[in-house]
Every structure is written in C-alpha cells, then in structure tokens.
Task: structure prediction
Amino acid sequence: MTAARPSVYLDAARWPETAELALALPVGVEEHDADAWRAAVKESLAEHEARGRAEVERKGWKFLGAERAERVSPYDRATSYEAIRGRNPTFAVSGVAGAYVVAVRALREFRRAYAEARARWRAGFRDVVFPAGTWWMVRGHSAVVAALP
Result:
C-alpha cells in the first residue's frame, strides 16, 4: 500500500513524498486459506459496522460529517462521560475459536524476543536480529529485523 504525503502539516523537507506499507497475512493464516480468511474478516467487519450503525440510530446520535468536523475547535472538550481506567485491549478477537489464545501467545513471544534483542543492542551488539514486526529500531537505528515467517 502506498500513500502520498499530505500537502499540509508535514514538512516536505523532513517527510518523504510517499510512504509504503507492506501488508501480509497474520501469523497462522496459510496462503491457501487467504481468500477464506479475507472473506471472514470482511463479513465480520460488515457485521460490526451494521451493529454500530444500529446503535447510533437507536441512541439518536449523529455524525458531524467532514465539513462540520473541519469547523470544530481543537480546544473544545467533550461533554459526554467516559469511564476512566477502563479496559484498553491490545487487540480484539471474535468469531474465531482459539484466535485470542494464539494472539496472546504471539504477542508475548514478540515482546520477549524484542526485549532480549533490545537488551543485547543496548549492550553494544549491533549484529542482533530483532523480531519481525519491529519498526522503530529498523527505521531509526538501521537494525536488522527477521523476515516474516
């Protein structure tokens, strides 16, 4: 996926004209299952959007739209109540048996491998290989990152 730099807010001298994002299947999804997985994600997304629209309609809420949103002051505060210290999940999984457990294990393994690689990097070893998914160490420090499995 390639995106052009917006014409506002980002200094052309400091930001590239385009940015690229490589998209890959999640770990655990085989290439031959890719079409079925994409269809399941699309169906789940449509279901979530439909439920969201129904809730907005049921509560009588409205969306500002792009033109009205542009006129909102960035200094205005929200007037609605929002619970503090609520749950802020790292990821959300629904509809796929065992997906949550797989995601938790993968995240824990990534964090363990990253912490180990970072500790070695901080000790001065520059030949360390960071786990796939590492971004800042590659972008900011030219560190080596493992290929996606």
The CA atoms of residues 6 and 70 lie 16 Å apart.
